[in-house]
Amino acid sequence: MSDADHAESRPSSLRSRRTVLTAGAGLAVIAGGSACSLLPGRQDPSSAPSQAAPSTPAESSAAPAGFAEWVRTDDLEGVDPDGDALDAAAGLIPGSAVRSDRYGSWMAPDFTPDSPVRTAPPSAADEGAVQRLLQDPAQADATAANVRLAMITALLDAQTAFEADDSRLGEDAASLAQTLGLQMADPNQLTEILRPAGLSGIPGSTVEEYLGAEPAPNDPTRHRFHLLGHGTQIVPLTTVPDGAGMIMTCARGLFPGMRGERSVHLEREIGLGFGQAGNQVIFSLTSGVRAVLFIADPLALPEVEALEPGQDWTAIEIPGARAMLPPGYAVTSPIQFGSGFAGDAGEQGTLMRQLEPAPELLSLPLGSFAARVPLEGADLAVATATDQGDGTWVIALRAQRTEDLLDMRATVAATDAAEVEDVLHRFAGGLDLSA
């Protein structure tokens, strides 16, 4: 297996690293950066497989041996989300600033005063974390809302989101710092913190290269995305000495896209963790994008069984979940709510907990096989497998609960589809949501 994923919907990867930077005036900035390419995958660019040609419905009709009971996402009847209804529910409106990239210009997003982005309290707030995070605990809801607003306006709508490189990353960093109210002596500090996460989804690779798609032309008088969902919690931060409090927030946006002459949906996701402990400001960041199909009824997916992992599989744990790994695998890069893992031959994968409430429409990566799996403690668990076309498969398992989801993915180096399916069934059988 090799790191998270990437393929037609080019799943993604998780890279985790911590950097301690001196930001002047005694301010230490700790960055926990993780590059995550949206829900189905996370993949380190250094080990990313070559891009497979996008599959077509004609190519997708015959399932390979091993996935006979599964369904091809390209063969499902999709639905188009109602963008106007999404905007109304979120209070999303065009702002006053004009933004631009190589595809054109658009209006920066803003939100009405009564928008839930501005007013919704965290779905959970640990009392001790709030006490460590804020001098005035009464400001917890307002502070969390401000971080959520900053994440959506500065990072979900980042000007670098669909650029060919990160040369304009400083502009997004400046926008984030301004919205968060951070006054740094060296503005390059935050830029370097954001750089490892790759705001375009996969560092070192353009949208066209890893999705086979590009954004549709922008309307210069409107914002360019619709908000699909967001979530926020205040949690204890266990990955720094003496602990701290952290605001964890995430959001998914729907961006119109094109694959040749065909319209596609691009689903972009950002997760931002922001905390403060004494003179330290703590960041964690995940980002990613994928081409997806939306379906209204998950029961349209067939259900397949989960299988017990072998006796020689070993456990990997994060807060809220435990999974099992095949022989030869070990944890490589733990962060607050996730962990990377790797095998003896350099294969990689990730296990992540994301603070995303259950969506109204289920999104699935294009060009994949998909099925439901029974998983105790999950409202819905969906497995997907994507043939990269180069002897590797991206496999992913997403277990959705009311206010969060567990996301596990890896790239399997195998040409035998039955072997790939077996590994994915055993990943499902080894995922425990009661940990």
Outline the secondary-structure elements.
Layout: E1 17-22, E2 28-33, E3 71-72, H1 83-90, E4 92-101, E5 104-111, H2 116-119, E6 124-125, H3 127-133, H4 140-156, H5 169-180, H6 188-194, H7 207-211, E7 214-215, E8 226-237, E9 244-259, E10 262-277, E11 280-295, E12 314-318, E13 321-325, E14 330-335, E15 338-342, E16 348-354, E17 362-365, E18 369-372, E19 380-387, E20 392-400, E21 405-413, H8 417-430
Parallel strand pairs: 2-11, 6-8
Antiparallel strand pairs: 1-2, 3-18, 4-5, 7-9, 8-9, 9-10, 10-11, 11-17, 12-13, 14-15, 15-16, 16-21, 18-19, 19-20, 20-21
Helix pairs in contact: 4-5, 5-6
Anisotropy-based shape = globular
pLDDT under 50 segments (min length 5)?
Answer: 1-63
What is the β-strand count? 21
Task: Calculate the terminal CA-CA distance, rounded to whole Å.
Answer: 24 Å
Please estimate the helix content.
Answer: 10-25%
Oligomer class: single chain
Rg over alpha carbons = 20 Å
Major β-sheet annotation: 9 strands, mixed
* Strand and helix order: EEEHEEHEHHHHHEEEEEEEEEEEEEEEH
Biased composition (Low complexity): 45-64
Region (Disordered): 38-64
InterPro entries: TAT_signal
Structure report:
- The protein has 435 residues and is α+β, with helices and mostly antiparallel strands.
- The protein is 17% helix and 36% strand.
- The protein contains eight helices and 21 strands.
- The strands form four sheets. Strands 1, 2, 6, 7, 8, 9, 10, 11 and 17 form a nine-stranded mixed β-sheet that branches.
- A hairpin with a 2-residue loop joins strand 10 and strand 11.
- Helix 4 packs antiparallel against helix 5.
- The longest helix has 17 residues.
- The protein is globular, with a radius of gyration of 20 Å.
- The N terminus is likely disordered.
